[in-house]
Amino acid sequence: MMKSLLLMIILQAGVASLHKAYLQHEPQKAHHGKQSDPLDCSEPWVEIKVAGCLLFQHLMADWDAAREICLELGGDLAVLEGNDQRWELAQYMANHSLVGMWYMGGNDRVGYWKWLNGQHIVDGWAFNQPNEDRGDDTCIYFQLSNFGFWDTPCTNLNNALCQKPYIN
């Protein structure tokens, strides 16, 4: 009887230990209810609520070089489709005095404006933008002083706004 009681206690402790280990390795829920691995937003990356991990790369590079730098750092140029994302970005930039023009992950190289994730860019443009929309290699950037997206030739030199996107 004593052996079976001892065996039962050991089994219960083992099950509890396995359950705890399972919970620690269970995939985390990211924002918007998407299942995701936890993001590493350690410095120099910053987490901006609904936008994920962002990195403000101060550099002067054309769009392709800016994208390559973001890829090397474990992200890509930022894709911020929603108004809530743009608002959080603008608030963060204002609070941290981040000025300048910041390339993002959108262009019209295929003849229409689209994000790197394949979605069409339909809103978020600054007043009278896009104005270089000829489907001929223009890229998108964000500028706090003129809230919204702007277009510019992809060969112009700007900063890069990198993002580690949520993994579905």
TrEMBL record:
Chain ranges passing through the membrane: none
Pfam families per UniProt: Lectin_C
Keyword Transmembrane in record: no
UniProt keyword annotation of Signal present: yes
SUPFAM superfamilies in the record: C-type lectin-like
UniProt name for this protein: C-type lectin domain-containing protein
Gene3D superfamilies assigned: Mannose-Binding Protein A, subunit A (3.10.100.10)
Record lineage: Eukaryota, Metazoa, Ecdysozoa, Arthropoda, Crustacea
InterPro entries with a match to the protein in the record: C-type_lectin-like, C-type_lectin-like/link_sf, CTDL_fold
Signal peptide from the UniProt entry: 1-16
Residue ranges annotated for the C-type lectin domain, each copy included: 53-163
Keyword field: Signal
